[in-house]
Amino acid sequence: MAVFRAGENIFVLETENYQYVLGVGSDGLLRHLHWGEKVQPGDFEIKVFDDINSNHSYLDTICQEYSPFGSKLFRDCAFKCRFGDGVRDAVLVFKDYVISENTLKIFLEDIHYRLEAELLYTVYEDCDVMGRKVIIRNTGEECIECEKVMSAELSFPEKCEYEIINTNGTWWGEYQVVKERLSGGTLSFESRKGTSAHGNAPFFIAKPCLDERGEKTLFGVLEYSGSFKVSVSRDGFNVTRAMVGVNDFDFIVSLKSGEEFSAPWVYFGCTESVDEVSRIMNRFALKYVFPEQFREKTLPVLYNSWEATGFDVTAESQKRLAERAAKTGAEVFVMDDGWFGERKDDFAGLGDWYVNKKKFPNGLSELIDHVNELGMDFGIWIEPEMVNPDSDLYREHPDWIYNFKTRTPSEMRNQLVLNLTKPQVKEFVFDFIDKLLSENNIKYIKWDMNRPISEPGAENLRDGRELWFRHTMAVYEIVDKLKEKYPETQFEACASGGGRCDYGAFRHFDEIWTSDNTKPIDRIEIQNGYALINPTKAMRAWVTDSSDAPLSFKFNISMQGALGLGMNLLDSSEEELACMKKYVEIYKENREVIQFGDRYGLMNLKDHMLNANEFVNVKKSKAIIFAACVNTKFLHRSFKIKLKGLEANSRYNVEIGEDRFEKSGSYLMNVGIERDFGGDYKNEIWTVNKIN
Ligand code: DGJ
Question: Which of 245, 398, 535, 691 has its CA at 20 to 30 Å from residue 655's CA atom?
Fold first, then answer.
C-alpha cells in the first residue's frame, strides 16, 4: 500500500524505498513527521509544544505541512491571503481526508473564513518519487485575494547543514551548477521573467553536509514553465525548509465565491547521492511526465537550418540543404526562423504567420514535398507569443500586447509579448498554428519565445498580477489542444535556447532546445548541468560549425541527448557528409540506451580533465560511454575510467573503435579501463554488451 492511515491522525506515504509521514496534532495543525527510510508507522506520535519564549512562537518552530501567514508565524510561509474584509491572517486546521489508490487528499480549512486548502499527495511507488500540490478554494461569498500560494513546503529531516544545488546561468550559458552550503538564512532561486528562464531553475537538490549516519540527499522539482520561486531557509534552531512554487513576486490570485486555484505539482524524493537524483527523475519523466504520444518512442535525429541559413531561408536554399541533410541520415528537416511575413531579420514579421511569397513562391508544399521525397519529415519554427511592432498584426491590434497605458512598452529583440490572457489572442494563436498544421504535412513544431515579459499590464484582467500564471497556462492550453488534434506532430519548447526547460515543458512538449551555445566544450558543462535533474531524451543537442573541434568530438558531445545537426551542409564535402552519416548511424544504433537508459556522470572536465558519461539500459545488458578530453596538460595522458550500473558478476564485451575485449562487470566498475587521451580533442565512444 502506497498511501495509508496509521492510527487516528497519522498518514503515511510510501515509495519502494522511502517514507513520508504527516499527522494532525491535537491543535488541528497538519505536521510533517518524517521523510526518509521506512520505519514502523505505528510508532509515530505528535508532540504539541508551546512557544519557546516570548520571542519564539511554536508556529515558527514546528514543521507544518503547509504554513499560512497568520497568527504567530513569522518565518517564511507557504500561503498568504487577504479576505474580503481586509483581514490578512489565515489559520488552517485539519478538516477531512480522502485516500484513493496512490493519492492522499487532506483538506484544511480556515478557523473562521470559508477558505479551503486541499493538499494533494501522489505516490509513484516504482520510481521513488512523490508528487504534491495544493488547491485553494473559496467556499464562501466574499472574494479572497491570494498573494502567495506555494505548491509545497518541505521540511528537511536532519538538523545538519545542507549543500543546496541549483543552477545560475545566462542565455548561452545555461545550467551552470551552483552549490551553496546553507548555514543560516534563506537561499532563493527564482525567475521573474514569465518563463523559467536561463538563470536559476525550478528545483532544488539538498545534500547533507554530514553523512555519518547516511543522511539522504533530498530533491524537489516544480512542474511549471513560468516565474517560479524555490527558497530554502535554515532557522536558528537548525531546521531547514524549502518552499517551492509559483513566484509570489508580482503575484495575485483573486478567488470569487466558488472559485479555486490549482497550483502546479512538485515532485520530490530522497536518495543516496546527487547523481542518483538524475536517474530517478529521468525514469520518472519517461514513465509519468512526457506527453503520451511520443513517451515510449525514441526521438528522431533532426537537422535544423538556423545556424546554416539564419533568416535567409528560401525554397531553393532549404531544398538544397534538405538534400544534404538526407545524406547524413537525419530523419526530420526543421526550417527555422525567416519563412513568414516580411521576416528578413528580427525587426519585422512576427505575428504575420503567412508564407512569404518572395521566398516561397509556391507556398511551403514545394519544400515539404521535397523533404518528404527525400525520406524525412518536415518541421517548422514559430514564435507564437510574440509580435514585432513592424507587422500587420500589431498595426491591426496594438492592444493585443502586455503593457501599461502610460508607459512605452519595452522592446527586446524588437518584439513585444502578446497578451495570451485575452481569449481572442489565445484563439488567434491556436488558429494560425491549426491552419499551418492542417494545410501542411508538418511533423515537428519548434515553439520559440525570445524575450521575457516586461511592463506586465493586462487591463482585461481584474488584477494584472494574474497574468504571469495565466500566460503560462494559456501556452499549455494551446499546445495541449494542438497535440490532441495533431497527435503525430512533435513539439519542441525553446526560449532563446534553454529558457523554457523545466518539468512543465516536459509535461506539455516532447523535447526542449537546450542552449543556443552549440560549442562542444561549453556544451559539456551545459549538458552536465542540465542532467542534474532533467531527462536525457528531451535534451536537443546539435552538431554545428560553431567550433574548430573535429567532427568526432562534436558528435561525441551531441550524441548524449536527442541528436541534431545544424551545420551549413552546403559547405560540407561528400567525405564530411559520409563521416556525419557514420556517426548518425552509431547514434541510431544506440539511441534506445541513450534516450531511455540511466545516465551516470563518471568524470567531469572540471575535476578530472576528462569528461565521461555513461548510459546503461534498464536490463544492464548494454552501455555506451562517451569520453572526451579537450586537451591534456602537464604530460597527463592516460585516464582510468571506471564504469557504473553494470552487473558485477556478468561478463561484458567492450568495443572501443577497433579494440575489443572482454571483462567482468566488477572489473569494469572497480578497476576500470585505462586509455590514452594525450593530445587535443581526444575522444572515444565505448560500447559495452553483456555476454549471455
Ligand atoms: C532562438 C533559438 O534558440 C534559435 O535556435 C533560433 O530558433 C532563433 N531563436 C530564431 O530566431
Answer: 535
